[in-house]
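ligand=flavin-adenine dinucleotide
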Amino acid sequence: MTGHSVHDAVVVGAGITGLACAHALRQAGLRVQVLEREDRPGGCIETVREDGYLLECGPHTLRAANTELVGHLHDIGLGDRIRPLGPVASRRYIVRGGRLAALPSSPLGFFGAPFLSAGAKIRLLREPWIAPHEESDPSLGDFVARRFGPEVRDGPLDAFAGGIWAGDPARISARAVFPELVDGVRDHGNVLRWARARRKSRRADGTTGSGARRGDGPRKRLGIFTLEGGLATWPNRLGELLGEALHTGVEVDELRRDGDAWVVEWRGTDGASRDGGRGQTRARHLILTGGPGATARLAGDVLRPDAHDALESMRSASLAIVHLGFRISDVEPPEAFGVLVPEREGRACLGLLFVSSALPGRAPGGAVTTTTFVGGIRHPERLDASDEELVALATTEHEALLGFEAKPIFARVRRWNGAIPQYEIGHAGRVEALERQEVEEPTLHLRGRARGGVSVPDCWLRGTSCAERIVTAWSKGTVSA
Ligand SMILES: Cc1cc2nc3c(=O)[nH]c(=O)nc-3n(C[C@H](O)[C@H](O)[C@H](O)COP(=O)(O)OP(=O)(O)OC[C@H]3O[C@@H](n4cnc5c(N)ncnc54)[C@H](O)[C@@H]3O)c2cc1C
């Protein structure tokens, strides 16, 4: 890479958002450069091999709710690596009174669920007669407690919020994470009528239950899947396709405008040796894909004050991932995906994933592996523990929840600081501030996971749609996307 280069677009960050955007821009013929601080692409998607284990340090599985994502994986040559999880994906547990209870796989199953009292089940039946919320931005916890009762809020919802966002349902905005549901209840009066209306309209337009159009052949909807060799296979492939357009080991530390161009200053993260230590890239479009706090710090001088405040005020959850390996002769993990732990159980983890049951081939012969999730927005202090303490904590959780008496034969800890942004009450106002910023400065694209969903498929879509906007603007001969 030369110290000074000019491109059509420069993407800061080679997580899946940045890679997806850069890949689509390159396919459209634009000159792109991607700058990544780490020495590998992928961001939160990180797969490592160690002592015969194949370990996911971030996401373990993906949900392909649309055929486009599956089509993309085929297009980049990964079609034959896709491994759907099958029925094990729907076998999940929740902890209730210190014991595992099976989570139902359909809404009707809640009436037979062992983790709900008889009173809570009767309370479920009242949902159709409960008026919609009057507040426009209720918390997810309040929304669910109002519709389904406090036991559903404190049990399955709490566990779900911890498992998906490492978050606190008392602070998450229901509208931000389930806009269709909240608006549907407002418009139709209750969940049941909204669900019926949705089913009807989807049948009419030929989409499936999750909103995806039905596909045929290899590009059909997959549900939950992983990739042979681990999820990092995907960013690695995108990195290969980008070739010299991807520069790892460079941290962007300054941004400014110079006429029509964005000037992006960076420094090599492996010391002063690389490219003389510092470099500069100029581009017409600038795409930022870091987390909200990092983007607020990096772009503070070029953002409107309200957009800057929106990013800076967004909290993000930290997580520790503890991988354990056990001798297969010593333990018997359930033939299921995993277990989620509600806060009220007072346990030290958010949940466990039975990796060897769900994703065969991830441990060496004679061993099985599990993943324990620790921390989250309610317990950042748990990440103050040493690696040894976290391994001991995870081992204790296995003993208490699964009855494992054996000690692990393998352990590895990965920490993620501020990795999962929280879409909390007031999120809509923050999103509006970011939208105003993009209207005012259409060549600056704020594509980090501060809005639009934190899941990998959401991030991929956000990167791809950003590229589409830029290409459309380019083809019209304007820079305004
Ligand atoms: C532990 C964990 C488990 C998860 N589990 C799941 C799951 O099961 N399913 C799912 O769908 N999602 C899951 N997620 C969420 C999902 O992985 C992330 O939201 C998604 O991968 C984020 O992608 P991204 O590209 O937006 O950001 P990132 O992956 O964070 O990428 C941003 C990149 O930008 C780089 N960067 C930032 N600032 C700079 C700078 N100044 N200069 C240069 N580079 C910079 C960073 O180094 C990083 O590589 C999980 C996340 C975590 C942390």
